[in-house]
Amino acid sequence: MYVAKHFNLYISNGVDISETRELVAGEKTPVSAEQSAASGNNEEQYGAGRAIDLDLGTYSSTVPGSDGTPWFKITLDKVNCIEEVIWYSNDGNPRITWTCTDTDCSNCVGRAYCSYYTLTVSTEGAV
Predict the structure, then answer these.
(1) Model's pTM, two decimal places?
(2) How far is residue 29's CA from residue 57's CA, in Å, rounded to a whole number?
């Protein structure tokens, strides 16, 4: 099994920056991203894939879907042991960091933002 020390997620309300963020040692990049709905229904500008493209000038903007609940989901290429999930701001600095254990990823550091978001790691569809 591949062990990833970090999984990094970049979602931000941003300024126009055209810079690529460098991968952190041990970072695992998602193969896909999905969200409940894009802001303004504009997938081209705010689609989920923009949160994982490492481009500091792009970002996703997730809003509630038809059921009234906003959600964001990423998929990795295989089952991984996730120790940490980092949400980066468009300036390249961490906004929220979740630390994971064998049972959950509830340990969150990131100013008041932690009270707004929850993180669930699962092996959905794993064989």
Answers:
(1) 0.77
(2) 18
CA distances from 88 to 23, 74, 103 (A): 12, 15, 24
Distance CA 109, CA 119 (A): 12
User: 33-56, pLDDT tens digit by residue?
Assistant: 999 999 999 999 999 999 999 888
* Cα angle for residues 9, 124, 82 (degrees, 5° grid): 45
Q: State the Cα–Cα distance between residues 9 and 97, nearest whole angstrom.
A: 10
Name the CA dihedral angle for 81, 28, 54, 46, rounded to a multiple of 10 degrees.
-50
Cα gap 122→46, rounded to integer Å = 25
Reduced to 3 states (helix: H, G, I; strand: E, B; else coil), residue 86 is: strand
Q: Among 8-17, 53-62, 105-114, 116-125, which is the least confidently predicted range?
A: 8-17
| Amino acid occupying residue 84 | E
Which of the 8 DSSP states describes residue 114? Answer: G
Contact at 8 Å (CB) between 48 and 38?
Answer: yes
Count of residues making up the chain:
127
